[in-house]
Design brief:
Layout lengths: L3 H33 L4 E5 L7 H12 L6 E5 L1 H12 L2 H10 L2 H4 L15 H10 L12 E7 L4 E5 L4 H8 L9 E3 L2 E5 L8 H6 L4 E5 L13 H15 L2 H6 L2 E3 L14 H35 L1
Parallel strand pairs: 1-2, 1-7, 2-3, 7-8
Antiparallel strand pairs: 3-4, 3-6, 5-6
Length: 304
């Protein structure tokens, strides 16, 4: 005769084992499955020198509102702020670093080698290396790309691998102010010369929804007194002009009220961060609507 009680125990043990295996599989793949069920969201951070403190406020709100960020693409100061956040995904640490940042931490004026720009850029590169221990772009927690300009060919260069500090230095090298950077066999300057709001790069990297932050508006400046001021103002105008079409290509455009803050004015950090927070909060309904619309569209396609 069959031992029914023994067989029942064996079946129960087998079922428990199968359930445990299933739970293990779910726990190991649950993150990727959850990500597959939502859009790939890219955060695009534009250039604007000191106005980039507004990016910090935007990121703080996105983190607080639990908006996923799967990719960061930044030009100039957008690359610096973006890389700082992509390293540890902590807006508090980003804010702390930003508040402590001074102009002298980034600007090292050259006396004997100023033929291609009065600022060398060594200090900026050292700042990045000190505050972002990840040596290479590939080591960041969030996929990241910095935008630079090939000075010889006039072409956009997407820096998404290799040494991070050098890439940020190249992306921030405002022409005529910072010296060009020899990087990956190219002579590079600030990405804002060709693409100050790199929405297209985010699309090329597979973003479903692009949140772009533009800090280039309002170029009016009546405090121009020297050659550096002239160069900075000319760059500011150029950067502002080349974002016109790109602004329309973003799914959500955030434009912090940076007002008349000059490109090298490091005294307005709190005001700029607050402007970023306000602008991001105002954009939240549009961001959530875009996420909902994507999910609804995916559900309709799946039902066919």
């Amino acid at each position: 005769m069959y031992n029914w009680s023994g067989m029942a125990r064996a079946i129960a043990v087998l079922l428990l084992a199968l359930m445990a295996a299933g739970c293990s599989t779910l726990s190991s793949t649950g993150g990727s499955d959850a990500k597959a069920l939502r859009p790939k969201v890219a955060l695009v951070l534009g250039g604007g020198a000191a106005r980039g403190f507004a990016h910090v406020g935007v990121i703080r709100v996105l983190e607080q509102e639990k908006i996923p960020i799967d990719l960061i693409v930044g030009t100039s100061v957008g690359s610096l702020i973006g890389a700082l956040y992509a390293y540890d995904m902590n807006s508090f640490e980003l804010e702390w670093t930003a508040f402590g940042l001074q102009k002298d931490d980034l600007l090292d004026y050259a006396l004997l080698s100023a033929s291609m720009g009065p600022i060398k850029g060594d200090r900026l590169e050292a700042f990045v290396a000190q505050h972002i221990p990840a040596a290479n772009i590939e080591s960041l927690k969030i996929p990241f790309a910095a935008i630079a300009t090939d000075l010889n060919r006039g072409q956009r260069v997407v820096l998404d691998h290799g040494p991070l500090p050098r890439a940020i230095r190249a992306s921030c090298a405002i022409p005529g102010v910072f010296q060009p950077v020899d990087y990956q066999g190219k002579l590079l300057v600030d990405g804002g010369a060709v693409d100050n709001l790199p929405v297209a790069v985010a699309r090329e990297k597979g973003a479903d929804i692009v949140i772009a932050v533009d800090i280039s508006q309002n170029v009016t400046n009546f405090n121009i007194t020297n050659l550096v001021d002239v160069t900075l103002q000319a760059a500011n105008i150029m950067f502002s002009e080349n974002v016109r079409q790109r602004r329309r290509d973003a799914d959500i455009l955030i434009t912090p009220a940076v007002g008349d803050v000059a490109m090298m004015d490091f005294t307005q950090k709190k005001r700029l961060m607050q402007a970023g927070m306000v602008a991001a909060q105002q954009a939240m309904p549009a961001i959530r609507q875009a996420l909902d619309d994507w999910s609804a569209k995916r559900s309709r396609l799946a039902a066919r």
